[in-house]
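User: quick one, fold this
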Amino acid sequence: MDEHPSPGPASGMGQSLDRRAELSEFLRTRRARLKPEDVGLPDFGRHRRVPGLRREELAQLAGVSVAYYTRLEQGNGRNVSPEVLDAIARALRLSDAEHAHLTHLAKPKQHKKKQTARPQQVRGALRQLLDTLDGVPAYITGRRSDILVWNRMAAAVFGDWSELPPQERNWARMVFLKPEYRDLFVEWEQKAIDIVCLLRMDAGCHPDDPQLSALVGLLSVKSEDFRRLWATHDVKEKTYGVKRLRHPLVGDLALQFESFRLSGDGEQVLITYHAEPGSASADALRLLASWGTDATRAGAATPP
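Assistant:
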């Protein structure tokens, strides 16, 4: 099992994210994706000046005044009540993750800055657990999509992260800035969307995190794809599903993944991968297990 300290502050540290602007854009983009017919309202005419619902229509659905909702959408959530946020979330048809994100943006909890910069630590028992998952690629991520610890099989499938500088052991950096990860993920766009959604969730919970702000700034400068996806303001929790990979040594893999938010530190998530028993992907995982951390390196040296 590989364990390394969480990445330290990046050079060119960014300022805090603007919570008022985040709240304003999130509400605006959620309102824009709804049409009157989606919520049972009549659509008078085809020529609407705004995409989606008007502020007046949204306020009507939520049972609040237009002036009240307008102030909220302008980023002023200082005195908003949980009941009003619940009503607006229902009117906007928000998912549970989006509802939580709205609450974090409108009524942020106070965080001490020195806690924000505190290194992310993984409990010893969890490190031992990863060692026992023989044949199962597994790793633990923390805030900002940092990769905190991983086992030998994760290195065989995704690459030996111990060879990267600490600040680069981060899913967002790898997915958007390293070409080999575009080749690894068959459905790269969906992987990129998932990463951005998680970073948006982090931004809502920790708008004063300078390392997160620096990461967003770096990716915004270096990746047009990141800028495009960041502008959607979408949020989503990581859950479960199937990840399709094209490994340089064993070829195509279809791996089912599961995510487990860890008790004791809700910002840490254990992700495991497994193949359907008897499948070609299961055979490929066994081959990768025999190669271990040399698997990616060997695959890179193998002609297509």
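User: anything notable?
Assistant: The mean pLDDT is 86.
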